[in-house]
Amino acid sequence: MKNKTIIYEMSLMAILIALLWMLDLTGIGYIPTGPGLTITLLVFPVAIAAICLKEKGGIVLGLMFGLTSYLTAVQGKDPVGAVLFEQQPIALAIVCIGSRILMGLGVALLYRLLSKFIKQDIISITIASISGTFLNTLFFLTFFWAFFNNQDNLFKIIIGAMTINFLIELVVNSVISIALSKVIYMFKKRMA
User: Fold this and answer.
1) What's the start-to-end Cα distance of the chain, in Å?
2) How many CB atoms lie under 10 A from the CB of residue 47?
3) Looking at the DSSP assignment, which residues form a beta bridge with residue 39?
4) What is the three-class DSSP state of 75?
5) How many C-beta atoms lie closer than 10 Å to residue 52's C-beta?
6) Ramachandran region of residue 36, left (φ > 0), alpha (ψ -120 to 50) or beta?
7) pLDDT band at 69 (very low <50, low <70, confident <90, very high)
8) What is the sign, positive or negative, of the torsion defined by CA atoms of 97, 144, 168, 77?
């Protein structure tokens, strides 16, 4: 039984990592919507990993999400990120990667906490899935402010852009995360 669980977890982790990188490399994961605005769909693989694979899954997929975000800036695909990379590449790496790791960990911890108090698992999955977008925005803005607070105009632009992005990402990532997490979780229970 333990071998089945290990194989399941390793397989799911590999599939979610591959999905995340595929979304990034095809351009589907980061959708430019205007100057400096990018909507990301990479929250949902992280949320699924955090719910189904707990903290380890959330951290690993959060790391992968952060790496794609940083590489997007390094490659100049995100105009604001490209400017920040030229100014402070290490600080930008910490913002991109650190905030996404904390987001994945946060979703996993929230799901674990909710599962203790809520009997209906679909409610815990729904709340944890939706929290991914909230936590992504919260941690990104917190890290961004901590490292780039001397650039008030840029921070105001980022806040405005992320408000629009947040609303769109909330809807899209929540629907996808909820649906896929429930399917994967049901599959996991059948294997146990």
Assistant:
1) 7
2) 36
3) 31
4) coil
5) 24
6) left
7) very high
8) negative
